[in-house]
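Subgroup meeting minutes
Present: P.N., E.W., G.H.
Scribe: E.W.

1. P.N. recapped why we're keeping a running log of single-chain structure predictions: easier to compare across weeks, and new members can see raw inputs and outputs side by side.
2. G.H. added today's entry (131 aa).
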Amino acid sequence: MTPTLPRTVRAVGTDQLLDLAQEAAMHGFSQRLPVDWLQEHLAAEATHYLFPTLVQRLTHRPEVPLQWRCQQLLSVSTGEQIRGLLDVLPDTFDKIPETLDTASKKDVVSRIEEAVTVRAWVERMAADSGS
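Output recorded in log:
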């Protein structure tokens, strides 16, 4: 039976997000940013957010556990917030404490929808540094 996707948002610090990215890498999940990229670009003392949006089951790779594909709102060192994706194990997500009220969760979801993607941000940063 597939676990029910939670309709919530969880807040995590940079160290915890790095741990989640490391776990995703260890399992070979497809939606994740490299840990070294995150270490280089995330604001060290920031809060980041995860919003599960899809139950991901890789039927062609049965050795890979079921995961929740989360939209993430990342705070980067430039002071901006950008959005990306991160696949997370359901049990791992469930262990992240619920700390946000309903209004805060709605605010985060709207900021995710408005945020520039990681790819667009990286391209802009490369163009800015090349000029």
